[in-house]
Design brief:
Pathway: Cofactor biosynthesis; (R)-pantothenate biosynthesis; (R)-pantoate from 3-methyl-2-oxobutanoate: step 1/2. It catalyses: (6R)-5,10-methylene-5,6,7,8-tetrahydrofolate + 3-methyl-2-oxobutanoate + H2O = 2-dehydropantoate + (6S)-5,6,7,8-tetrahydrofolate. One of its GO terms (cellular component) is mitochondrion. By secondary structure, the protein is α/β, with parallel strands linked by helices. The chain folds into 2 domains: 239 residues, Alpha-Beta Barrel (TIM Barrel); 46 residues, no CATH class. It contains 16 helices and 8 strands. It has an 8-stranded parallel β-barrel with strand order 1-2-3-4-5-6-7-8, surrounded by 6 helices. Helix 10 runs parallel beside helix 11. The longest helix is centred in the first third of the chain and has 24 residues. The protein is elongated, with a radius of gyration of 28 Å.
């Protein structure tokens, strides 16, 4: 009995010491301790195993882009399977006309923000243009940074040229999961001649199937099919043993992906409306709601309605107002003293005139 009592006392002291250590560490940013991918447990994280199981059962996979903490939290709450930190951030967040300008450092900022907000989805980060084309070694180095510094679980790269295939294979062999991307590859618009659909003739369609198969052989866990005819997407999906994720590729893919801002109807400016893809369905018109709220805010501020008593919560004891004004007068700030006294009286009169909340 004495042994059990002593043992319990030791465990209690040990627990207290551990708790104290954690408390002292609580002010240390998490990413200074470890900034890599979050732990993938079977209970609360989507893993590659989950995706393979869904694919095997024929259950559609949901993918949405996210670029910051709020959007990541929304995806997390909705139970989206994959959160893609896409280089499309260059266009919808930074205002560029293409995906080409965004840098690796900028992508890492987006990745870290998303990693803080999305705890359930599999996190996939795009390798931005210019960060992996030179060599397989460069590609591996960039992919490692996306995981270690960005907190992602996997990476995505575009195209299926021999150099891209070698890069994908090298990244997989380094222990990093890779998602491929064929069809319209926005980083290649220089040679594609713009954002144009692919696979619309026999040779182009066959090439898409062949390149998707090559990416599978390189070890990719999934392939994005962008802007290709539905029969081509259906052929690729049938030919592959890994999931296909469609975007403007019709209903015959293993899953679908849309850009966060597009599906929410967030960007209402005529320029954005002009470049919104034809395949995108707006599931909401959030942009209209935002515009209305901002106009209402501007109106209330302009008219002096906001902030009213309900949104002026911080008070100073009325007994101190006179002393405060006196001190200001001693400093030669008579005008400021009068302003403080008048403001206190104004707030008091408005508060007394406001209906009491129960």
């Amino acid at each position: 009995m004495a042994f059990l009592t002593a043992r319990a006392s030791h465990l209690t002291r040990s627990h207290r010491a551990t708790s104290l250590f954690k408390r002292f560490m609580s002010n240390v940013p998490e990413n200074t301790v470890y900034g890599g991918p979050a732990a993938q447990t079977s209970n609360d994280r989507v893993t590659l195993t989950h995706l393979r199981q869904k694919h095997k059962k024929g259950e559609p996979i949901t993918v949405v882009t996210a670029y910051d903490y709020p959007s990541a939290v929304h995806l997390d709450m909705a139970g989206i399977d994959i959160s893609l930190v896409g280089d499309s951030a260059a266009m919808v967040v930074h205002g560029h006309d293409t995906t080409l300008p965004i840098s690796l450092d900028e992508m890492l900022v987006h990745c870290r923000a998303v990693a803080r907000g999305a705890k359930r989805p599999l996190l996939v980060g795009d390798l931005p243009f210019g960060s992996y084309e030179s060599s397989s070694s460069q590609a591996v180095d960039t992919a490692v940074r996306i995981l270690k510094e960005g907190g992602m679980d996997a990476i995505k790269l575009e195209g299926a040229s021999p150099s891209r295939i070698n890069a994908a294979k090298s990244i997989v062999e380094s222990g990093i999961a890779v998602m491929g991307h064929v069809g319209l590859t926005p980083q290649a618009i220089s040679v594609l001649g713009g954002f144009k659909p692919q696979g619309r003739n026999v040779s182009s369609a066959v090439k898409i199937v062949e390149t998707a198969l090559t990416l599978q052989e390189a070890g990719c866990f999934a392939v994005v099919l962008e802007c290709v005819p539905a029969p081509v997407a259906a052929a690729v999906t049938s030919a592959l043993k890994i999931p296909t994720i469609g975007i403007g590729a019709g209903p015959f893919c293993s899953g679908q992906v849309l850009v966060y801002h597009d599906l929410l109807g967030m960007l209402q400016h005529p320029h954005h409306a002009k470049v919104t893809p034809k395949f995108c369905k707006q599931f909401a018109c959030v942009g209209d709601v935002i515009n209305k709220a901002l106009l209402e805010y501007k109106k209330e501020v302009t008219q002096g309605c906001f902030p009213g008593p309900a949104h002026t919560p911080y008070k100073i004891n009325s007994a101190y107002v006179g002393d405060f004004s006196n001190e200001l007068q001693k400093l030669g700030l008579d005008k400021a003293a009068s302003a403080a006294a008048e403001a206190a009286e104004d707030i008091k009169s408005h508060s007394e005139g406001s209906p009491k909340s129960e």
